[in-house]
Amino acid sequence: MDFKNLKMNFLTTSQLKQYEDKGYISPIEALSKEEANEVRKEIEFIEHKWPNELDGLGRNYVHLISPVFDKICNNSKILDAVESIIGKNILICGTTLFIKNPNEKGFVSFHQDAKYIGLEPHNWVTAWIAITDANVENGCMRMWSGSHKHDLKYHNQNFDENNLLTRGQTVENVPLDETDPVILKAGQMSLHHPTIVHGSGLNKSKDRRIGFVIQSYIGTNVDQVLGKMYVQQARGKDQFNFHEHVGRSKELMNEKDIQVRNKANKELSKIFYNGSEKIGKF
Q: What is the C-alpha radius of gyration for the chain, rounded to an integer number of angstroms?
């Protein structure tokens, strides 16, 4: 390896201070516009060739059935930034597509990721990668700055028809004027803390708003206390072996990869709906 010309993309002191103070960092350069456009083409190719494949539970673990998404998860720029926060032993724990089409009413209520996901301790971080531009008009994320410093809040389980979350889990009475819009260009990303309160509104534009979310990158010391997770080693070593390790996707919609993904989604659903009397569409 040519270490002399090796470019590292670890977070700066000011970025780490922002994460500590606010609970998120944005924007971070992750993909080129061309790479982001390639991802959009992959999504729309899958939607055309395998209709409904990305609906419902199908929006999860797409990196297990697509080399294009697998490549993003293992992107060195992203991993350098993640390593700055959780350390060098990194697992890819899961991924989700958040797609808001124009003229639809999809939204994400204000919530905390750590509320129902069962990952302990909180040595993990979520990467939200903009595949299209994300702005106020098309329903970008909004972060309640500093809310990660407090305990997990009570969440109502609303199961709203248009809510893109599993249970429609909602932290009520979030002061909107105290939240920050996370405006990203296609290819940029944000990183956010497990306990920051965040959500997003409607897409009022004439184009799709697409986010690919790696939820999450976890340190190998992080256990799943509610169930079983299927993970991939991104960096370092796993000396804890809390989770089921799986291989990387090398072929789109490979039958064996689909079987693994189905198992992973089945277990993920058990985690997300642990203790709930009702099951949502995701």
A: 18
Residue-wise pLDDT for 237-270, tens only, equals 999 999 999 999 999 999 999 999 999 999 999 9
Strands (E), 121-229: 124-130, 141-144, 156-157, 169-170, 179-181, 188-192, 198-200, 209-219, 223-224
Residue 82 CB-density burial (10 A; 0-12 exposed, 13-18 middle, 19+ buried): buried
Beta carbons within 10 angstroms of residue 281's beta carbon: 11
Residue 125 pairs in a beta bridge with 217
Give 137-174 pLDDT, tens digit per residue.
Answer: 999 999 999 999 999 999 988 888 888 888 889 999 99
Report the CATH fold assignment for 15-272: Jelly Rolls (2.60.120)
Domains of the chain, by residue range, sit at: 15-272
Residue 122 CA to residue 198 CA, distance in Å, equals 17
Which of 82-86, 124-128, 138-142, 168-172 is predicted with the least confidence, judged by mean pLDDT?
A: 168-172
Please give the span between the terminal C-alpha atoms of the chain, in angstroms, as a whole number.
43
